[in-house]
Amino acid sequence: MPALRQQLNQDRKKKMSFISLFSAFFLTRGRIGRSEWLTRLVIAALTCAAFGSLAGTTFGERGEDLFAVLFIWCAVALAIRRLHDVGRPGTALFIVVVPILGPVWILIQLFKRGLAHPNRFGTDPASRDDYLQVNIAE
Please, which domain of life does this record's source organism belong to (predicted)? Predict the structure, then answer.
């Protein structure tokens, strides 16, 4: 019986790691910092480019298109989470359709420092509550 319980716990951990990986790239809830946003964007771009190229040689243009759409979804979801960090709603991403000024404004918002306090989208991803605190008054 303990072996079965151990196997179930391992299966549960695998499912949880897949869910956390899925939510890290595809969901729009919460906030992420600049470095995390840029890192995830590069990982998504490289992964989708590699698998898109492989799918292109195997399945043709449709295979490449699938991974292009997957990357666009990841990029939009990550941009929305990044906008949440600076206090903007995800719908602010629609301003990108304004010629010249829209993309520039979005880039400024994406590289801007996030709010240092919790906002309606969640807590500050850069906060370090668990960091060592020293009381020098004592």
Answer: Bacteria
Q: Say which DSSP state 116 is in.
A: S
User: Distance between CA atoms of 79 and 70, rounded to whole angstroms?
Assistant: 14
Max Cα-Cα span within the chain: 69
Q: Kindly provide the residue ranges of all beta strands, DSSP E only, lying in 20-117, ordered along the sequence.
A: none
- Estimate the crossing angle of helix 61-85 against helix 101-111, to 10 degrees: 60
The β-bridge partners of 68 are none
Q: What is the pLDDT of residues 34-87, one digit of tens each?
A: 999 999 999 999 999 999 999 999 999 999 999 999 999 999 999 999 999 999
Residues in the chain: 138
Question: Across the strands, what pairs with 122?
Answer: 119
Q: What are the extents of the domains in the chain?
A: 21-138
Q: Look at the pTM and tell me if it is higher than 0.85.
A: no
Euclidean distance between CA atoms 111 and 32, whole angstroms: 12
Cβ pair 76, 70 in contact under 8 A: no
